Amino acid sequence: MPKKMIVFCILLIFFSVFSGGCQSILISQNEPITVQSSFFDPDDVQNGEQLSIDSISKLGHGIVQDISTQNNALLITDTTKAPPITYNVNLLNLSDNALSSFVNSDKQQNNAIFDSDNNGVFYIEKNASDSTATNSQLVWTSIDRTVTKTISNPNENVQNTLCLANNQTVLYLNIDNEIIQKDLSGHQKKYQTQNHYFIDKMRYQSGSNTLYFLGKKDVDDEFDNLYSATLETNEQGQDTNMLKTKQIAQDVIDFDINDKNTQIAYIEKFNDSHQIVSVNLSNMQKRNIKKDNYNSIIYTQDNSHLIVTKSDNSGEQDQQSIWIINQDKKTQQQLTSPMLISSPIIPSKDKNSLYFSVQKNNSTSSPNLYDQIIYQITYSFK
Question: Model-level pTM?
């Protein structure tokens, strides 16, 4: 091969890998290969912030749900791969990666979260063999597994959306899309939105006693709108409190709250793309951050950056890569290659680490048999 042709091929490969696009022919699919993406976005170098991947580790198997307040354990859900099928909630000790069984049942557990004092776990439990799904209930179990309480009332059919409020209080939805606020002692308040929104996600801001949520008027609507509502109690004697909702944005895909700095960041549909917007909740001033194929968003532990997932353009179904965005400088850097991410992205509460699960085919002979691998990525900035 002529020398000029060899040089041309080398340059072609170089520019394919390190040019402005985020997809690289040298990055494998569905493996969390980390990427030093200052090559992909020269603005990051010019602004003096370069990402360094310190470590990447496999921690175990299962779907990551939450991280403890003390930052020493992950909450994991898992299902046995062979009969008899059981549904499990496990605790993964982050000091030694030891996995301990927390709940083992023939009932399916969903949306498990630690309580505010880390004394126990809230989780939604339903009879997996009941196709009508009319018996989902909210349960709390103490960390030492000596006490289990059913939090919801019979026949409420708890929906797969819940979040923590103040003082060991949880917020959840019943079958009528009513928001129930309840503590471990059984004290309850019931709220209803004026338009009976179908709610997909809730986050509570303690300082203002405000609930932020994604909701839609029709369950068949393609996108949610982002709303806020103060959890005010109506006059005594009324069983249900009517919420006065305020729409913040429409056609929203995901959002997160920065409780320390009274900010909210969300992803909205913008023409043929998705746009990240940050809002100062004290004056409702908006800032447009970035536009791309974003799907999920969460603040880092120090609230200085945003962790987002971004759809892959290769045509592979549900492939997403993880990126980190400096919301002040509006620059982004890539943390991982595209993967089948099967859990929320959970940031550490005291260091620059992320935890997440990746779905992988567990058998070539059984293509529908999947395994969930738990990964930790630790990063820093130079």
Answer: 0.85
